[in-house]
């Protein structure tokens, strides 16, 4: 299947395992490959009701929806038809459970701190931020969630190899390990990914059923 160039292909799709638990985020292109190979189905939630669609039925639904497009809807036009970008897909045979531990990496640290220097409080582009050890490595400071924060280059130089207290600098907030992926939380701030919330809300999975 060949798709025309479209910014819609830059969007993300939430992937559920066969038990409807969120396990991954993939590209739109990858999602359509899974649908076309009958390895996944599209999941929608309308008025509290789930609906599932294979590739063909999603194509038919897309044709109807194309007549009444919502501002947050995205469509991809092919040579022969127009199809809506799905927001959530479910793998039909994948039964592994989601990873509970959030990856400790640069992207998630920047996302956790909102690209804000944790000393001066100003927001910066990622290229203008560095990572600072609150307790310096020379003092035995570890590279973990509780000891690494975003810092602008100016504040990082000012702090040097000292603790914030020694440098007369105060942290905006105490660094902690996030319970859910910070980068996913950033995506949830966009309206087009609001449908993910049901599947990412811890309360949805932990509430006792009666």
TrEMBL record:
Organism (species): Singulisphaera acidiphila (strain ATCC BAA-1392 / DSM 18658 / VKM B-2454 / MOB10)
GO MF: endonuclease activity
Gene3D superfamilies (UniProt xref): 1.10.30.50
The name this protein goes by in its record: Restriction endonuclease
Domain HNH nuclease: start-end pairs: 104-157
Keywords: Endonuclease, Hydrolase, Nuclease
A Pfam family annotated for this UniProt entry: HNH_5
């Amino acid at each position: 299947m060949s798709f025309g160039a479209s910014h819609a292909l830059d969007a993300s799709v939430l992937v559920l395992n066969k038990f409807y638990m969120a396990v991954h985020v993939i590209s739109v292109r990858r999602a359509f490959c899974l649908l076309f190979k009958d390895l996944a189905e599209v999941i929608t939630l309308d008025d509290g009701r789930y609906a599932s669609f294979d590739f063909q039925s999603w194509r038919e639904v897309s044709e109807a929806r194309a007549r009444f497009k919502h501002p947050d809807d995205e469509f991809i036009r092919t040579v022969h038809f127009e199809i809506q970008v799905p927001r959530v897909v479910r793998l039909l045979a994948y039964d592994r459970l989601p990873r509970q531990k959030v990856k400790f990496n640069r992207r998630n640290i920047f996302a956790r701190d909102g690209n804000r220097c944790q000393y001066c409080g100003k927001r910066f582009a990622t290229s203008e931020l560095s990572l600072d050890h609150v307790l310096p490595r020379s003092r035995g400071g570890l590279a973990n969630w509780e000891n690494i924060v975003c810092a602008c280059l100016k504040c990082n130089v000012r702090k040097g190899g000292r603790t914030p207290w020694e440098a007369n600098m105060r942290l905006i907030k105490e660094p902690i390990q996030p319970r859910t992926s910070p980068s996913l939380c950033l995506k949830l701030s966009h309206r087009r990914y609001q449908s993910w919330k049901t599947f990412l809300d811890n309360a949805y999975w932990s509430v006792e059923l009666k």
